């Protein structure tokens, strides 16, 4: 089974999470391509697709959301998992944490995982610094690679079941 892991990442934190997922899936014997979402031009050669994105203000990066929008119908016919990486922000009751909830529903994803992210204040641009100052989230690296590894193992086991069917 050929698997695509595609990510939308600006500062590299989500890319590192995606690489970790791709490596875990490959360790189970699957042929895995790991790509930035902006470099994916087609998904026709993959039986399974895992798409992740950094989340900013509740929104996915345009390259990752664009990948889903461009291939929505095709993704519905594949086994799909989605993950989001970002810092918690204030959410109104009943409001989804990010737009990926809608993407997961639209493509009938098996799961949408959320992982804590990383904020390296010194690397942010002026606009991002202003937003961070207003929201005042904790700064630092809060990624939990044990959580990522555990999720990747669940996905890999499900892929094994699907491949055997």
Task: Give the biggest beta sheet.
Answer: 6 strands, mixed
Report the β-strand fraction as a percent range. 25-35%
CATH topology-level name: Rossmann fold
Structure annotation, total helices: 6
- Assign a percent range to the helix content: 25-40%
Radius of gyration: 16 Å
CATH level-four homologous superfamily name: Flavodoxin domain
Provide an overview of this structure.
- Helix 1 packs parallel to helix 6 (145-164).
- This protein has 165 residues and is an alpha/beta fold.
- It starts with a strand and ends with a helix.
- The chain has one domain (2-164): Rossmann fold.
- The chain has helices at 13-26, 62-70, 72-76, 100-106, 126-135, 145-164, and strands at residues 2-8, 31-36, 48-56, 59-60, 79-86, 111-116, 118-119, 140-141.
Could you give a quick summary of the protein structure above?
This protein is an alpha/beta fold and 165 residues long. The protein has helices at 13-26, 62-70, 72-76, 100-106, 126-135, 145-164; strands at 2-8, 31-36, 48-56, 59-60, 79-86, 111-116, 118-119, 140-141.
What's the topology here?
Blueprint: E1 2-8, H1 13-26, E2 31-36, E3 48-56, E4 59-60, H2 62-70, H3 72-76, E5 79-86, H4 100-106, E6 111-116, E7 118-119, H5 126-135, E8 140-141, H6 145-164
Parallel strand pairs: 1-2, 1-3, 3-5, 5-6
Antiparallel strand pairs: 3-4, 7-8
Helix pairs in contact: 1-6
